[in-house]
């Protein structure tokens, strides 16, 4: 009986493994086809200045509409795209879309638009991201200053010197660089020493209970104070409640982004959102140093 069970177990196990391999293959094919079939799209989430309510820019977030599975969130396919070596191509598509959106944007009706684009580790460490961005901004004839690159600490970890060179080249093109999910990586402070960045984005996990949990609250205050001291802009992400806003105002945070302000939305909805007067101004704010 034990032998049979053992054999059954073995058979089940290998069946599960081949299933997984099959699923992986299916996923890989689906992802590669998705690019050709234009199943990807970008949605945009506003970022506003806390003091004035003015729109400072938007973050572009990738969405995949799978023909059978419907909307697949980026957390489910971006790591996989990285694994199969598709992220550079996908990332270039995202950058192209963002540049296209900036180029086609009607400044006179909606005010100038800046778009922040998330990039993966491989884009910073392997491909020539700066050359890709340089080419695209020229091709679409847009001011590179309208573009911001969001990079995570973990993306910079793999090959720090290469990553630093890439990010410095981007900045010399006039592209802004933000350190995303700040505080969740291993050595945030080392990056602040070595990286010439413009903005820090405080990870949502710190903010969630910052107004009730004194430890989280102090961490958020500390990050904001540190950003001010280093003359960096600071964005709080995942702002969901008025309590979050009150806390962040008191802590002197520059900018906020989150469901309370707006959910990520298609470009056309963003225009309606702005036209409806949801943001209190149209000019991007000057580099803020201190907000009281
Ligand atoms: P992220 O860059 O930290 O983006 C913020 C995430 O928080 C987004 O999730 C956004 O929809 C979500 N979010 C915004 N406000 C709130 C809020 O108030 N509450 C909550 N609970 N969530 C909020 P999303 O779109 O699922 O993206 C997840 C992650 O996937 C992103 O985190 C980013 O790391 C990655 N990602 C998204 N688009 C791209 C892309 O084009 N390229 C690369 N490489 N990564 C991307
Ligand atoms: Mg981001
Ligand atoms: Mg983030
Ligand atoms: Mg995050």
TrEMBL record:
This is EAL domain-containing protein. GO terms for molecular function: cyclic-guanylate-specific phosphodiesterase activity. Keywords: Membrane, Transmembrane, Transmembrane helix. It comes from Azospirillum doebereinerae. One of its GO terms (biological process) is cellular response to nitric oxide. The chain holds residues 522 to 813 of 814 of the full protein. Residues 24-278 form the EAL domain. The keyword Transmembrane applies. It comes from the Bacteria.
């Amino acid at each position: 009986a034990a032998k049979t069970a053992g054999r059954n177990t073995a058979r089940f196990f290998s069946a599960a493994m081949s299933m997984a391999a099959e699923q992986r293959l299916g996923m890989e094919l689906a992802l590669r086809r998705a690019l050709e079939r234009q199943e990807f799209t970008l949605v945009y989430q506003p970022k506003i200045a806390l003091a004035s309510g003015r729109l400072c820019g938007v973050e572009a977030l990738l969405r995949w509409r799978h023909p059978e599975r419907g909307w697949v969130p980026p957390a489910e396919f971006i790591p996989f795209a990285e694994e199969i070596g598709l992220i550079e191509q996908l990332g270039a598509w995202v950058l192209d879309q963002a540049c296209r959106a900036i180029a086609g944007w009607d400044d006179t009706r909606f005010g100038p638009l800046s778009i922040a684009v998330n990039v993966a580790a491989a884009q910073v460490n392997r491909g020539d991201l700066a050359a890709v961005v340089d080419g695209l901004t020229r091709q679409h004839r847009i001011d590179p200053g309208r573009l911001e690159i969001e990079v995570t600490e973990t993306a910079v970890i793999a090959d720090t010197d290469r990553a630093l060179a890439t990010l410095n080249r981007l900045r010399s093109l006039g592209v802004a660089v933000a350190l995303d999910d700040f505080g969740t990586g291993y050595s945030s402070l080392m990056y602040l020493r070595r990286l010439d960045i413009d903005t820090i984005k405080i990870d949502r996990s710190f903010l969630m209970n910052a107004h009730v949990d004194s430890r989280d609250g102090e961490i958020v205050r500390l990050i904001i104070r540190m950003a001010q001291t280093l003359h960096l802009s600071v964005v709080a992400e995942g702002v969901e409640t008025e309590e979050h806003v009150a806390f962040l105002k008191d802590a002197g945070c520059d900018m906020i982004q989150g469901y309370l302000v707006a959910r990520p939305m298609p470009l056309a909805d963003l225009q309606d959102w702005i036209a409806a007067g949801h943001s209190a101004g149209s000019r991007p704010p000057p580099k803020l140093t201190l907000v009281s």
